Every structure is written in C-alpha cells, then in structure tokens.
Amino acid sequence: MKFNKHLLMITGVLAVMLVLAGCGNNSSSTKSSKQMAKDQTINLSTSSEISTLDIAKASDSGSLTPLYQISEGIYRLGPKSKIENALATSTKVSNDGLTYTFKLRTNDKWNNGQPVTAKDFVYGWRRVVNPKTAAGYSYLFEGVKNYSAIQKGHLSANKLGVYAPNSHTLVVKLSHPVPYFKLLLAFPTFFPQQESAVKKYGSRYGTSSATTAYNGPFVLSKWNGTSDTWTMTKNPNYWDKKHVKAHQLDFQVIKTPSTGLSLYQQNKLDVISLSGEEVPTYKNRPEFKKFVGGSTMYLEMNQKRVKALKNTKVRQALSRIINKQTLASQVLRDGSTAPKGFVSTNFFRNPKTGADFAKDAYEKDGVAYNQSQAKKLWQQGMKQVGQKKLHLSLLSDDTDQSKKTTQYLQSQFNKLPGLSITIHNVPTKSKLSRSTSGDFDLVVSSWGADFADPINFLDLLTKSNPTNNGHWVNATYDKYIEASKTTDANNPDKRYDDLVNAEKVLMKDQGIVPLYQPATTQLWRTNIHGFVWNPADMSNGYKGLYVTK
Questions:
Q1: Kind of pairing between the strands at 390-397 and 546-547
Q2: CA atoms in the 13 A half-sphere facing the CB of 422
Q3: What three-state secondary structure class fits 173?
Q4: What's the distance, CA 513 to chain centroid?
Q5: 434 near 403, Cβ under 8 Å?
Q6: Which tens digit of pLDDT belongs to each residue from 273-307?
C-alpha cells in the first residue's frame, strides 16, 4: 500500500479502524466488566486526505484505509495474517493450484439494498485489469489467467479468468500457482464493485461519499471529494452488523501533531498520533500505544527524467550521504528505526530456518552511512555522466513528519559537491498525482505491506510494475522475481532464495534508498477497549471494540 504515494507508513488511524470495524464472534481479549456505552461515537484523526473511494483506482493509504471499512471481499485477515472468511462460506482449490471455487454468502447487500453477488466480483476484477481504467494495483492480478494478454491489448478484459456460474459461486482460473493468492483476496482491489453504481456515476464514481456504493461494516458520508472531515456510520445492510460494535466514526484530517494533541486534551479526539517531540512526555502513560512493522519509507530517484540518476555511483552516493540512524532516532524521534533494506524487519521468516527475511537479505552498503565514500562515489559518478553540477527537486507530503524528513535530506545532500536541492512539500493528493505522472526528480515514498509476503515489496520495482515511478530497471532482479512466481512458485525454499537474491541485487545497485521503518505513536483515550492492532500482522479482522463513557 503506498502511503502518500506512497506516503505511506501504516498510519495509526488504520490501526484503530481495523479494530473498530471487526466482525465475527467476540474474542475473549475484549471482555470487560464495564457496560457498553449508549453513545458509541468515536472521534478519530488522520494525516491523509481521501484521494478516491473507487476501489479500482485507490492506491494510497488515505483511500485504502476507509475502503477496508466500507467494503468487504472474499476474505479478511486475522492475527498473524490468518485468513478468515468474509463473504466466502467455503473455498475449494484444485490439486494443481490453478482453480479456486468460492461459495459466497447469500445475505450480503449493497447500501441500496440490492444483493451482493458473484457477478459483482467478476465485474470489479475485469474493471481493474482493463488498461483503460489505469488501476495502480492491476499488477496484483498478474497470476490470474489471461491477465498479461489483456494488459498488452491482445485480449478483452472480459477474458480474465474469473467466472460466476451462478449468483453465489465464483470461479477463478490462474495461469500459474500463486502461493499468496488467498492473502491477495483480503485486499480492497479484489473487493466487489456494483456495476450499476459505477455506470450511473461514470467519471464521478468514487469522487464523493454520495457517488460510491458500499457493502462493508460502515457507510461513509459527508465527504465531497476535497473535504478534510467525514463520517462513517454502521451499515444496516451489512451481513454481520450485529458484531459491529461502533455506531459512528467521525474523522478529521490533522497534519500537525500538536493540533491533534490539543484536541485530544479537550476531549474532541479519542485517538491521536504523536510527534517525536511529544513521545518522551507521554510514553509511560497507560493510553500510549506504539505500532511498528510492515512498512518502509524510501527514496525513489527518477531515472527517466534525470540522466545522472541512471548512474549507479550517483545513486549510491545519495544513499551513503544519509545517516539513516540519525534520521530515525534524532530527527523523527518517534520510535522509527533505521532500515536493513527495502523489505521491513519482523515481516517474513525463512521457511527453513525461521530467520528474519531482512537479516538474510541484508546488504550493508545499501543502507550504510559513509560520508567520505559518498563524496568519492559522487565525484566518480558525476565524471562518468559528464556533469559538475546537478540541481534536483525533492518531493514529499506536507505533514510535519514529511517536512522534517525532507529538510534533513536536503542538509545531507548539500554535502555532495555541486548538488543543490529544492524541496516541494505538497498535499497528499498532489504528491500522488505528481509521483504517478513522473513529475519529480526525487520523491520520498512509502510502502506498507498489503499482505505478508516479501513479493509485496519487491514486485513494485520490476520493470513493468506501474508503481515503479523511479523507472529503475535491472534484468537480473526481474529474473529472480519471475522465477519466484513461476518455476520456483511451489518450492518454498527456492522461492525464498529468489526473493532474498532479488533484494540483494536491488540494494547493491541502489535501485531505491531505504530511509527508515516508520513507527506510529499514539494516545488512545483510556475508555476505548479492544484489540491493539499490530501492523506486522496485516490484520483487518479484529473484533468487538466498544466504548464506555
């Protein structure tokens, strides 16, 4: 999930929302002697605006976060990424792993009362893979039969390997085994879409709360496409509404942590994120929460637009002039940590040894700080490209944290002789647009994993991936990724080695510059009881939160 194209670090609001909307049987972890409050309205803040509510086009956390709550697909994820049935009641997989047959619930409805059927999945998936839709996440369908031919324009999107033999049976045909396919189905891009609503609103679909169809635990309202406040209320048509404990969630965009803290102290917000300066004051209080894992902030370098950035030594110099430990511990000071690579730590384990993927794939030089070596590489690289001076723009979001990051990066980059940097901190929506269109030299991006497998990070940087905004290309890297999906797909050990080798190639060639692993530090009002969501779990199925006041 690209956080702020990728802003994204996994935000605290996502953590809270996944707790609030959980469905299914109540867990014993949420038991309390206190009675449930009559008024179950929770006031939340987020640092990101909603860019779109169109499932086919959403690619940033500001959009995907609410989609988890207003929509639902075949599965949801429980603790440690455990697959749980959502709209599916049963799943049958063929012996060769190429055919999935899902039986769907018969009692799920859209917010207009019409039934959710298998045809809504067929329509939604075909719409996502249609090149005309320009869906940022269409590549996740790569394993579905005929996807590649559709992307190349050789076949119609109607030929995608997904069928609805009847209203409540969905059949999916794969072109090759996809070890993580079930995990994908818990991600919003694979959720159903109501054809009648999409066609009714046309280009306006998903641009406001009134022009969007909903089938999840909540219905969103009071969002006009640009507003920085919105409301979610319990969906009366949701199939499992009796297990949705919160009645209303009120959101407002807060980009300055000090503003959020002030509103929290005035009892106008129930959950807020803290800045690094505020953490020491509140870290020992019972309402203090910290979430780490599953995401990485990194620097993309636009090799298509800037000739010098095609040079490996120039890219390596930009990486080694940055002290990532200082950025995390002294600039941000919010619990974020220095990265070991692109794939975050505590995310995936070696199937044979149990070792952390980030440890196995660690390439020290890819994340090291070495000022003298950086200057040497810079001089060598600039000589190779025939330039003595270089001016680069640095794009990021306009949040406090983003501004701190870009200011620190500028101060480090200015140590390279002949390099000057102009900072552009812009609203999330503008950053998303500029990053996607290639209107940047350097951009601070972020990725929060959508499912617990290294491929979710590494696939982003393949040659054909539409999210590879820096246009880094390495044939050896692509070869390892392809092998992990094809010849080695059914061999966990070989597949793991492919992914480790790919990460090593990425770091040696400095395709991107990992900056830090984000941490979200928050205050939760003490009368909010429920599960604490750990981003490393990728969980969107926790249950039973309630409020006492």
A1: unpaired
A2: 8
A3: strand
A4: 18
A5: no
A6: 888 889 989 999 988 988 777 889 999 999 999 99
Token pair of 507 as six digits: 């770091």
Q: Identify the CA nearest to 232 among candidates 387, 67, 54.
A: 67
Omega into 6 within 30° of 0, i.e. cis? yes
In angstroms, rounded to a whole number, what is the distance separating the alpha carbons of residues 322 and 502?
A: 23
Confidence of residue 500 (pLDDT cuts 50, 70, 90): very high
Cβ neighbours, 10 Å, residue 96: 10
Give bridge partners of residue 442 from the DSSP assignment.
Answer: 301, 394
CA dihedral (316, 319, 320, 326) in degrees, to 10, reads: -170
In the chain, the amino acid numbered 258 is S
**E strand map for 136-234:** 162-166, 169-173, 218-221, 229-234
- Against a cut of 0.70, is the pTM above it? yes
Residue pointed to by tokens 């047959």: 101
Q: What is the pLDDT of residues 165-188, one digit of tens each?
A: 999 999 999 999 999 999 999 999
Angle between helices 475-485 and 492-508 (to 10 degrees): 160
Residue 310: left if φ>0, alpha if ψ -120 to 50, beta else—which one? alpha
The C-alpha angle 264, 267, 268, rounded to 5 degrees, equals 75
**Could you give phi then psi for residue 487, rounded to 5 degrees?**
-60, -30
Which H or E run includes 513?
strand 513-516
Question: Which residue from 169, 187, 167, 194 is spatially nearest to 99, judged by alpha carbons?
Answer: 169
Q: Which residue is it, tokens 């779109």?
A: 52
Report CA-CA distances (Å) from 139 to 10, 25, 136, 143, 167: 21, 34, 8, 9, 27
Contact 327, 401 (CB under 8 A): no
Tokens read off for 381: 């690289």
99-111: pLDDT as tens digits: 999 999 999 999 9
At how many degrees (to 10) do helices 312-320 and 371-385 cross? 160
Task: Enter the tokens of residue 520.
Answer: 């979200």
Q: Is the pLDDT of residue 56 over 60?
A: yes
496 DSSP assignment: H
Q: Mutual orientation of helices 61-70 and 12-20 as an angle, nearest 10°?
A: 0
Task: Please state the three-class secondary structure of 395-439 as a single string.
Answer: EEECCHHHHHHHHHHHHHHCCCCCEEEEEEEECHHHHHHHHHHCC
Tokens of 415: 């140590």
Per the document, the length of the chain is 549
Tokens for 57, please give them. 């086009």
**Structure tokens of 283?**
């870290």
Cα 507–Cα 508–Cα 514 angle in degrees, nearest 5: 25
Determine the Cα–Cα distance for residues 70 and 296; give it in Å rounded to an integer.
Answer: 26
Q: Is the pLDDT of residue 548 over 80?
A: no
Q: What is the distance, to the nearest Å, from the Cα of residue 416 to the centroid of all Cα atoms in its chain? A: 33
* Rounded distance between C-alpha atoms, residue 453 and residue 448, angstroms: 12
List residues bridging with 424 in a β-sheet: 395
Handedness of CA 351, 185, 53, 431 (dihedral sign): positive
User: H or E segment at 158?
Assistant: none
